[in-house]
TrEMBL record:
GO terms for molecular function: zinc ion binding. InterPro entries: Znf_SWIM. Residues 56-72 have a biased composition (Acidic residues). This is SWIM-type domain-containing protein. Residues 129-164 form the SWIM-type domain. Residues 1-82, 481-507 are annotated as: Disordered.
Length: 507
């Protein structure tokens, strides 16, 4: 995958960068900056952007206005077709709510994450606006809503429109009357539709939003802002994973800084400067996330994991055959190739994949499936003494027998092993976290692996679990179901941030 560095020419670190397309349109059109915290200025310019004759900038993003939208504009905007495809009747809106509705329905915001709680549903937008949908009211933390809390802002209109579109099989045929509070006048209401368990996750998957989930112990899965910044910056390095990227930078987050006072500049260290700016400056954070979106970061992450695992096993095979150690200090294990190190690195890689499947959902599941299946296939093919036939006369590493240096035995096991029912099985527990739709293209490879480890007499519990997984994937694929992406194929999720590994199989 080629790094999208060519997009960096559009990255700016200015203090007054536009946070939404509407703001970007205003800045371009007037030739001057428009302070985003000025409530009155925001309202006037948003109204002008929505109702004036110069509102074409937003339409240009979609290749220009359609004939239907032009007819609606010329007829006084009694109806309007949103980006979602739904046509709304705006006749019930007044002079305050009408402009907000038009700005919201024409815009495209980015949702960082969403979650359900006992009090309703929360949607965190990239520009730091936080929309809460409750049974009694819908609120937002933006300056526009704070100035007029009795009127829905553009963020509320947009979020409710996106959710409303999810529950219509054909949004382009849907019509609804909009209310001043941003809600379509339809029954049942949005919060009632989201009440059913798993519905928010399904909506988030369809809308390509990250949905934070409770692991059952009160912890939420997702990425903090600090983790997201490390993820983006590490994506531009060819070998370093975000978990290993500049540990020294994380310690600086605890110190209070302001981007305007020059406190984020680190002389001679561009990475550290960008890291601090992205943490403390919303505009820089938003720009970085647009240059390297979540989908790209996820694809790069899982590709790096697979490349590292491939290089690790290649180094191990070469070392066993010739005694040659890797000379690249950036190699997995730092150039140290011993059986224990190989097992530990592979277990850590699989655990990181599992944790990141949950933290990055709904992004990256195909890349995670590719990496996991490749690792499992590689270990399933290594049921042998790695020193057998070597040309440097080595009979053992540290006095161990052949099974104690056999990667297959150490990671998958043998038929005489009595595995516990709740024991995490190498790779399989991570595969269960994936949606069936991502595993279905690899189901034939999984069948081949199952046949191979049957011949190699894997533990009965391992064979049963892999067989059950394959049947679940085949069943979902045959039914055309990929909706399990929100919860995966497995059961309880692991503790967040667990970068440990599976214990080595004892004989």
């Amino acid at each position: 995958m080629s790094a999208p560095t060519r997009q960096l020419n559009r990255l700016s670190i200015g203090q007054n960068m536009p946070e939404t397309r509407a703001q970007s349109t205003r800045t371009t059109r007037t030739g001057r900056e428009d302070p985003s915290d000025d409530d009155e200025s925001d309202r006037e310019n948003d109204s002008s952007s929505a109702t004036g004759s110069e509102s074409g900038s937003d339409d240009d993003d979609d290749g220009g206005s359609s004939d239907e939208e032009q007819e609606q504009e010329s007829s006084g905007r009694s109806t309007f077709r949103a980006r979602s495809g739904i046509t709304y009747d705006l006749s019930s809106l007044d002079a305050e709510s009408g402009p907000n509705a038009l700005v919201g329905l024409k815009s495209q915001f980015d949702v960082v994450n969403c979650r359900g709680s006992d009090h309703g549903y929360d949607f965190q937008l990239l520009d730091r606006a936080h929309v809460h949908v409750g049974s009694d009211s819908t609120t937002c933390t933006c300056s526009t809503f704070k100035a007029r809390p009795q009127v829905a802002c553009q963020h509320i209109f947009w979020v409710l429109d996106q959710l409303h579109s999810h529950f219509h099989p054909n949004p382009s045929a849907a019509r609804a009357v909009l209310s001043r509070d941003g809600r379509p006048q339809v029954r049942p209401r949005i919060e009632e539709l989201l009440k059913e368990d798993g519905t928010l996750e399904e909506a988030a998957e369809k809308l390509n939003w990250q949905c934070l989930r409770d692991d059952g112990d009160g912890k939420l899965y997702g990425m903090t802002r600090t983790e997201k910044v490390r993820d983006v910056l590490s994506a531009f390095t060819p070998k370093v994973l975000p978990e290993d990227f500049r540990q020294d930078l994380v310690e600086t987050v605890l110190q209070k800084r302001t981007a305007t006072a020059g406190e984020c500049v680190v002389q001679g260290d561009f990475e550290a400067t960008m890291f601090r700016l992205a943490i403390y400056d919303d505009s820089v954070f938003s720009s970085l996330c647009k240059v390297m979106p979540s989908g790209a970061c996820s694809a790069i992450y899982f590709d790096k994991i697979q490349v590292q695992s491939r290089r690790l096993l290649s180094d191990f095979d070469r070392y066993c055959a010739t005694g040659e150690r890797p000379t690249d200090p950036s190699s997995p294990g730092g150039g140290i190739i011993e059986v224990d190190e190989v097992v530990d690195h592979l277990c850590t890689a699989v655990s990181r994949i599992k944790t990141n499947i949950l933290a990055r959902a709904p992004h990256g599941s195909e890349g995670a499936a590719n990496a996991l299946v490749w690792i499992l296939e590689s270990i399933a093919s290594r049921n042998k003494d790695p020193l057998d036939g070597n040309n440097w006369g080595r009979s053992s590493f540290q006095g161990e027998d052949e099974d104690q240096r056999n990667l297959y035995h150490l990671l998958i096991g043998s038929e005489d092993m009595d595995l516990k029912p709740d024991e995490e099985l190498f790779v399989l527990s991570a595969l269960e976290s994936l949606p069936a739709s991502s595993l279905y293209p690899r189901v034939q490879e999984l069948r081949n692996i199952l046949r191979k480890i049957e011949v190699n007499r894997a533990p009965r519990a391992y064979l049963l679990k892999l067989g059950k997984l394959i049947r679940a994937v085949e069943s979902a694929g045959a039914a055309g179901a990929g909706s399990s992406a929100a919860t995966g194929l497995g059961q309880k999720r692991p503790a967040a941030g667990n970068s440990g590994g599976y214990s080595k199989r004892s004989r």
